[in-house]
Amino acid sequence: MRAFRANNIESAKSRLSVCAEDIREQMERMGNTSELCSQLGAVLGMLGDCCRAMGDGGSAVSYFEESVNFLLKVPNDDLEITHTLSVSLNKIGDLRYYEGDLEAARSHYFQSLNVRRDAIKDHPNVSSQILDVAVSLAKVADV
Q: pLDDT tens digit string along 3-61?
């Protein structure tokens, strides 16, 4: 993450790729445990951020979609995982929006909103959940 914060995106992407490969190897040995799916989902999301920062929207979408696929394998009772899942969905929506594919953008924004609404049902007193729902509502309203 220091490389990413220092705007050394290539280095960050390289290191994250190594992390993703290590996690995949662990998954081959141990199976798709919740912990490994969560870790891989987060790393893939960060790889998407790197690609997005480098102007490679297509690869960014691929990483975010793969992140979503792994995060959906994890029980949704962890607020951090739920947040990461909804953020990845919103980022796919953002990239689709910038491409002019408003229907796909809206679909991803609604998926994110639904994830966040489900989370707020289970955790109504967590203020960050209210903010997350507000962000998703604003994104849906934009399309």
A: 777 788 999 999 999 999 999 999 999 988 888 998 999 999 999 999 999 999 999 99
Please measure the distance between the N-terminal and C-terminal CA atoms of the chain and give it in whole angstroms. 32
CA 111/CA 85 separation, integer angstroms:
10
- Residue 1 to residue 11: CA distance in whole angstroms: 10
Task: Say which DSSP state 32 is in.
Answer: S
State the sign of the Cα–Cα–Cα–Cα dihedral 89, 95, 100, 101: negative
- Reference 18, options 50, 54, 61, 60; nearest CA is 50
Which residue's structure tokens are 């220091």?
Answer: 2
Q: 124 is written with which tokens? A: 């109504």
Do 121 and 87 contact (CB within 8 A), yes or no? no
Query: What domains, with CATH codes, occur in the chain?
Result: 1-74 (no CATH), 77-143 (1.20.58)
**Token pair recorded at residue 28:** 């081959």
